[in-house]
Specification:
Layout lengths: L7 H5 L28 E4 L4 E3 L7 E7 L4 H17 L3 E7 L6 H11 L4 E3 L4 H5 L4 E2 L1 E5 L5 E5 L15 H10 L8 E2 L4 E2 L5
Parallel strand pairs: 3-4, 4-5, 8-9
Antiparallel strand pairs: 1-2, 1-5, 3-7, 6-10, 7-8
Length: 197
């Protein structure tokens, strides 16, 4: 008798844990929409720790960020005024996961753009946990820490250079009104996260 590998039916009937299944490429049990986002702790560029669960009670925008990517710089310009408008109801956690961007560069660019704090993920552990692929790659959690949106900041793409929709703004404003976002996921557009190992 041939031994078969476990599959989703075995999870459904309770024979094995879903974590024992080898995940197909691009699939992430942890990052399903309408499920709690995985917790993490990262230090900012000054060494101060930040834990995701410390921000429960507010909408949290997690943005995988880059000092060198022009798309990340464009998002900074659009996102900072929105954060001022939303005030203390929304918190931004920007995460630098590119292995080729040294700490001094991150500090210099973060200061120039006025986007501190930046959380440092030099071994891309949180980027891997969230299966982040690009800068920017956005994840929006409601006040209970439930993932409500992930993907692109807006609808800018190779063939569309000017945004006609801002998915982050639409999602946050829906959540502030107590509604679900109309769009829950859009493929991210930007620069690929550089993983050095």
């Amino acid at each position: 008798m041939t031994k078969r590998s476990p599959h989703l039916w075995d999870c459904f009937v309770g024979k094995i844990s879903p974590r024992k299944i080898i995940k197909p490429f691009g699939y992430n049990f942890a990052m399903q929409l309408n499920q709690p986002a995985p917790n993490f702790t990262l230090s900012d560029l000054d060494g101060n720790p930040h834990t995701l669960t410390d921000y429960l009670g507010r909408i949290v925008i997690i943005n995988f960020w880059s000092a060198e990517c022009p798309h990340a710089a464009r998002v900074d310009l659009g996102l900072l005024p929105l954060l001022e408008e939303w005030s203390d109801k929304v918190h931004l956690l920007q995460i630098a996961s590119n292995g080729n961007e040294p700490l001094e560069m991150l500090k210099e660019v973060a200061d120039e753009r006025g986007v501190n704090p930046i959380l440092h993920d030099p071994k891309h552990k949180v980027a891997d946990l969230y299966e982040a692929t690009n800068t920017p790659h956005i994840f929006i959690l409601d006040a209970k820490g439930i993932l409500q949106y992930h993907g692109a900041y807006d609808d800018v793409a190779f063939r569309q250079r000017v945004a006609t929709r801002n998915y982050v703004q639409e999602t946050v404003e829906s959540l502030l009104k107590g509604s679900k976002p109309k769009v829950e996921s859009v493929p991210p557009f930007g620069c690929t996260i550089v993983r050095m190992d």
